Amino acid sequence: MRLYEPVPAALQALRGSNIEVILGVQNPQLQSLQTAEGASAWVRDNVQNYMPGVKFRYIAVGNEVDPNSGNAPFVGLLLPAIKNVHQAIVDAGLQDQIKVSTATYSAVVQGFPPSQGSFKNKDFMEPIIQFLAQNNLPLLANIYPYFSNLYNSKKDLPYALFTAPNVVVTDPVENREYRNLFDALLDTMYSAVESSGGQNIEIVVSESGWPSSDGADATPQNAETYYKNLIEHVKGNGTPKRQGKAIETYLFAMYDENLKGGDATEKFFGLFNPENQQPKYQLSF
Predict the structure, then answer these.
(1) A biological process (GO) annotation for this entry (predicted)?
(2) Cis omega before residue 165 (within 30°)?
(3) What would the CATH number be for the domain defined by 133-285?
(4) Hey, where are the domains in the chain?
(5) Which of 56, 149, 159, 220 is least surrounded, with the fewest CB atoms within 10 Å of its CB?
């Protein structure tokens, strides 16, 4: 389960549940983590105070910080905050239980085919990747075939929904075949990570989902198809670059967010209706 910020009521409810948690630090809070003292206080208040009842798996320091986006003001704050939170976790003796990282997304990479993936701004991302690699930490990545398909002029909806087994995109550089957009996006990120010194880094898919309303191809049928096929796919297939292993993946999101800003589709990624808490789809994990 992913919490985007420490919510005391939610953390209390998770006590004894055995549910593993990604706990987030929202971008505006990065400023408070620029010192060792600030990071130690954050870890004490939001992690240690809830242990051992809550099982923390990752701390996501910042979300989709990108020099080319509205999150650009946080660029200079991100790596120091990651380092300080990691050191606070080490000082607390929790480094074998909790891994510190940041959540990035596909917009920070470029290149095709997937083997040619690289970071658009290596000066920003490369030091982060090298720090993660040096400390055996994963990278969290938000992977959305919905948006990649929507903004790609060569749209192929079945390829994005895992329903086009006969559509194959070949990567001639590494002689790999891609039969769905999710794998292509994830391996593009892997290539970017590897080219920046992160050959040993595992990528955790910290978000993936499909909207059910108010946008092109945003229907309940397409959303249900995507979620069902994604769940089945990540259980053990791996990607062409990283074959034969499960892909740790978090579905976005638990509930529709009727108050969320941005494009109308942003309100409709939920697996459950917030009004009655009933599932929108019949999913099996």
Answers:
(1) carbohydrate metabolic process
(2) no
(3) 3.20.20.80
(4) 1-97, 133-285
(5) 220
